[in-house]
Specification:
eight-stranded parallel beta sheet, TIM Barrel, alpha/beta, globular, about 290 residues, 8 strands, single chain, about 15% strand
Amino acid sequence: MEKDFRGAGVALITPFKADLTIDFEGLGKIVDNQIDNQIDFLVVLGTTAETGTLNTVEKQQVVDFVCKRVNGRIPIAVGIGSNNTQSVIESIKSMDLSKAGAILSVVPYYSKPTQEGIYQHYMAISKNSPLPVILYNVPGRTGVNMSAETTLRLAHSSDKIIATKEASGNLNEITKILRDKPANFSVISGDDSLIVPIIAIGGEGVISVAANVVPKAIADLTHFALNGDYKTAAQLHQRLQKIFDALFIEGNPGGAKAALHSAGIIENVLRLPLVPVCNQTYKILSEEMDKLI
């Protein structure tokens, strides 16, 4: 099961219509485009999905729709996270996750728990989850970093905890995890710009934002690196760096939605407090997309 989440994964956006309802037709196009372009697995209801703006019914609708559309062709992980441990457990128990392969759960945000608190949080989740758990360390969003020591403690404490999505950007800490982890525990890049470096030191893939807009390029980049063709991977990374940068000029998922809108796939709509990128950023993204598509 754990190696299902190896290779090129995508943190799917949730497209909206002008009236702010979910655009399932657009979501279907994006899902099909991922599979057609060799993406290895999908993540729904992550940060990129604007999950904080979705209600309980909508979250289940998105999971059901994506699972039905995928129809078992590639694995799916579902994002379920909160700074309330009991809320995560209740969501896991109440949602229909029968077609999913894993849960991705972010480090508790805002509350700034201690490392012991983070450890106990994830152990409680793993004990209550019917599915394997992927940790998600993204201190730039949560306000607290899960240390390499805590990640390793979790990896060695529970066979249910199968991987970490590392978006700390700290290669020294990531190296510690890779050096001392159990054999069945994977490290997945949470940063598009670090796909090649993390794989080069032992990582097993990426959960990508950029794959929403350039899935074939991200799949190729990841697969070149995993196959040890670092020369080709480096050349492709250099071609992609401008789109990596452009996608985050005004944050995520505003950049991804603007890029997909410029390609004629979805409407450029976000739910508050997020808003569409400014005209200048949109122009940059559109120009970069024209170069890559």
